[in-house]
Design a protein that fits this description.
Tachylectin-2, Chain A; 28% strand; 22 strands; alpha+beta; 438 residues; single chain; five-stranded mixed sheet
């Protein structure tokens, strides 16, 4: 969904508009453990995905050349457009709506300072940054790749200038719907990157693929051979997914499903043998997380990452993000059973990428759309790993109920609703004024 304007579109208030500029979040002055919210609510049935990403079968997408340039496809153009100032206002209002939700009790941010926009991804080839991973060799480079429609390639980007340092094509790979990437280590200790071809909007793919390549040097273009190609199936049927983590227990890649309709995501691990049936690890009711019950875009998970020391996890949706304290060797179900801390990330056009920095002290985030910002969000020191509050470390079966994190949020939603109604009213006013202009 296209950022702030897309939120309003999802809620049915205004037509899609050209992407507004990103408005950095306000500084966070307090870092604290969140208190699990309470109450009950029902999910809103919205896809949380931009219409131009509708599946065309086998998880593949139609690629619009205009979209590749960062412009909305023709069928997305509205008869009335908002100018840049109005777009900025809408983006700002969307950010303040998130602040209203936080004030209503959805949790205190864990960021140690305001987001820092480092630069803009000016390379027109990087039009849909859908995954990002920090280099393990230098703080000055991150890797990123496009969503579906591109070839099987990824880029090394300078974190100071956003200049493209190198382009890597992956021999023997195909980009059906690459959605995320992660850095880790192979069993022999080689630094590697995992590229997750796991997108499946229609939940029709018979299998998904994760590719492993050796992490390249940041300044040399060229083709890279695939070290491993894992063809994977879910034990409980097809899922759409956009998140690839490193499992803190084993160091192997783990996929977290998106589940736009229900917000009941699941985590699965690549088996030790590589290809085969994914191993179910944990369930997560994203709607019960702080800020996760606002609307479909709040609970549709679009990215995630594990810190290099495996002591922290981050998951993000289009409108919210959370971190968990973990420990190397700990089952993922144990980590996710703890109440998370809310992470205040900037709202982007279509935010689908997040990665920890090389030292784990901050996270990088990007968004789809040409010219999207590369943003650094500093983190406070992680809390000591607490007991997992009743969580079972045993591996759940696909039929197990979703692990609730916190309690439902109906009373708090009443408070957040008042602020949201004000924001919606302002959005409608802006739209009506724009329609009256010649």
């Amino acid at each position: 969904m296209p950022g702030a304007a897309g939120v309003a579109t999802t809620l049915g208030f205004i037509p899609p508009v050209s992407p507004p500029p990103v408005v950095p979040a306000a500084p966070a002055t307090t870092a604290a453990r969140v208190r699990p919210p309470s109450g009950d609510q029902r999910p809103c049935h919205h896809s949380g995905r931009a219409p131009h990403h509708a599946s065309t079968g086998a998880g593949d997408h139609h690629h619009d050349p205009a979209h590749a340039r960062g412009a909305a496809p023709a069928h997305h153009q509205a008869s009335h457009h908002l100018d840049d100032d109005q777009g900025a206002l809408i983006s700002s209002l969307a950010h303040h709506a998130a602040a209203v939700a936080a004030a209503a009790g959805f949790g205190l941010p864990v960021a140690a300072g305001p987001p820092e926009v480092r630069c803009l991804l000016a390379d027109q080839r990087i039009a849909e940054s859908s995954g990002v991973a920090a280099s393990s060799r230098t703080d000055d480079v991150v890797f990123t790749h496009n969503d579906s429609g591109d070839s099987a390639r990824f880029f090394a980007v300078d974190t100071r200038t956003c200049a493209t340092r190198a382009t890597y094509s992956v021999r023997g790979a195909k980009n059906v719907d690459w959605e995320d990437m992660a850095g880790g280590a192979a069993p022999d200790g080689t630094p590697v990157l995992w590229l997750a071809d796991i997108g499946d909007n229609g939940a029709k793919r018979s299998g998904v693929v994760v590719y492993e390549v050796a992490e390249p040097g940041p300044g040399v273009d060229g083709p890279l051979p695939v070290r491993s190609r894992w063809t994977l199936t879910y034990p409980d049927g097809a899922h759409d997914a956009e998140t690839l983590l490193v499992d803190p227990e084993t160091g192997r890649p783990a996929i977290v499903t998106k589940e736009s309709a229900r917000g009941a995501s699941r985590a699965y691990r690549v088996p030790r043998s590589g290809s085969g049936v994914l191993e179910p690890l944990a369930g997560l009711d994203v709607r019960s997380l702080p800020g996760g019950g606002f609307a479909g875009p709040s609970w549709s998970l679009t990215a995630g990452a594990t810190s290099p020391d495996r002591r922290r996890l981050v998951l993000r949706s289009y409108l919210a993000a959370w971190t968990w304290t973990t420990a190397p060797g700990e089952p993922l179900a144990t980590s996710l059973a703890r109440p998370p801390e809310r992470l205040d990330l900037p709202v982007g056009r279509q935010s689908e990428a997040v990665s920890f920095t090389r030292d784990g002290s901050a996270v990088w985030t990007t968004s789809e759309g040409a010219g999207s910002p590369l943003t650094l969000v500093p983190l406070s020191s992680p809390s000591p790993t607490p007991a997992a509050g009743g969580a079972s470390p045993s591996t759940p079966s696909p039929a197990d109920p979703i692990l609730p994190v916190g309690i439902r949020t109906r009373p708090l939603l009443l408070l957040a609703g008042a602020g949201t109604a004000l924001v919606v009213g302002l959005l409608l006013l802006v739209f009506r004024v724009s329609r009256r202009r010649p």
